[in-house]
Design brief:
Blueprint: E1 2-3, E2 6-7, H1 22-37, E3 40-46, E4 51-55, H2 74-78, H3 86-95, E5 100-106, E6 109-119, E7 125-134, H4 136-166, E8 170-174, E9 180-183, H5 185-191, H6 195-198, H7 210-221, E10 226-234, E11 240-252, E12 255-265, H8 267-313, H9 319-346
Helix pairs in contact: 8-9
């Protein structure tokens, strides 16, 4: 290419004797072979941005041959002279000494472009050198990967939303200040509140006992995980629900975003446990009543028998007193009968392991029959 009477060859020129140095020739051959293999375009322009060189396998994708554009101005090749055209802009910047690397989309292809000043010794910047690597395949693969990642992210986001809203267990999100940010339908159904009556309120408003929820929030704020904490929550109808709470916190860059809380209703289980406890208590009471009645009856029978003996030997003046004793014994026997009747209704086949030996009816003697003058068992 000619520039002010000087030659600025892209490749080493022949010597004055017409012989190209072997090393330079080999380098040129290697370079041309490389260009024929790579999906790239290499070009050079003069200071007027007129092509003086254009080679590379990437030209075929644009329907161009080697050096086909040589002699054309860059603006004519691009079909624009707009000063803000990005390709013209980076070439002008190169003439000013600024190199640029950017990505270009052209005629359905994607290129990674490097444009820089073409410097020749003391002549300084004599034009622009450019290399464009065709990365269309890579760009499409990256786009497909991004689309796949986006689709996968949307799937998990939708799956998470689906799980959250339709889970059979109560779920909620609580902010760092204790405000309920989100609650699923199971949580609302558990307590009977409408969404606007629950979401946006402080969680402590719905807890019967302030201490457990305060401790839970404190532990979560310290980064701990809360697992199966018992608490009592107040339903909209005023009833109290026994619940188990498990929760941890979503942290982003050290920032408390929200909790992820599971609320499990154990009210029925608590009621069953309380009913079982009451039944066990009644069983112990019935066992004690039965044992007490049995043990009281034995000495009572002795007293009854002794009074009969006294009645045979005592004079008529003691009869009123003896009759009064017999009447008192009969009343005691009636009370023992009622105790035994109650005990028989409650007493199960299994005896408490810690029952005192003296109250163990299995080891106790049989009760005397009513026919021998003893009190009833």
């Amino acid at each position: 290419m000619a520039k002010q009477g000087k030659s600025f060859p892209v490749f080493p020129a022949r010597r004055s004797d017409g012989v190209v140095p072997l090393v330079a020739a080999m380098k040129e051959i290697d370079f041309r072979l490389l260009l024929e293999q790579l999906p790239a375009i290499v070009w050079a322009t003069d200071r007027d941005l007129r092509f003086v060189y254009s080679r590379g396998a990437g030209l075929a994708a644009l329907g161009l041959g080697a050096d086909e554009v040589v002699g054309l101005s860059l603006s004519d090749h691009l079909g624009t002279r707009l000063p803000d055209d990005p390709t013209l802009a980076v070439h002008r910047a190169a003439l000013a000494g600024v190199a640029t690397v950017y990505e270009l989309r052209h005629e359905g292809r994607v290129y990674q472009v490097h444009v820089e000043p073409w410097r020749v010794g003391s002549d300084g910047i004599v034009g622009v050198l450019g290399v464009a690597l065709d990365i269309t395949g890579r760009a499409r693969a990256e786009a497909a990967l991004l689309e796949s990642e986006r689709t996968l992210a949307e799937f998990f986001e939708n799956a998470e939303a689906e799980f959250f809203e339709n889970a059979a267990m109560g779920l909620n999100w609580i902010g760092p200040d204790g405000t309920i940010l989100r609650a699923n339908q199971a949580e609302l159904d558990l307590l009977g509140y409408a969404r606007e009556e629950y979401v946006g309120h402080h969680i402590a408003e719905f807890h019967v006992d302030p201490e457990p929820i305060t401790e839970i929030l404190t532990r979560l704020g310290r980064g701990e995980t809360v697992d199966a904490w018992e608490a009592r929550m107040r339903a909209r109808d005023g009833s109290v629900k026994d619940v188990l709470i498990s929760s941890n916190v979503l942290w982003e860059d050290g920032r408390f975003v929200h909790t992820r809380c599971f609320t499990r209703d154990i009210t029925d289980r608590r009621r069953m446990e309380e009913a079982r406890r009451q039944a066990e208590l009644l069983q112990h009471v019935a066992s004690l009543a039965h044992a007490a009645a049995h043990e009281i009856n034995n000495p009572l029978a002795v007293v009854y028998g002794q009074i009969d003996l006294i009645a045979h030997t005592a004079g008529p003046e003691t009869k009123p007193r003896i009759d009064a004793c017999r009447e008192a014994i009969a009343r005691i026997a009636e009370i023992l009968d009622r105790m035994n009747s109650l005990a028989r209704l409650q007493l199960s086949q299994d005896w408490p392991a810690d029952l005192p030996p003296m109250l163990d009816l299995k080891a106790s003697s049989a009760a005397p029959a009513r026919g021998d003058g003893s009190a009833a068992v």
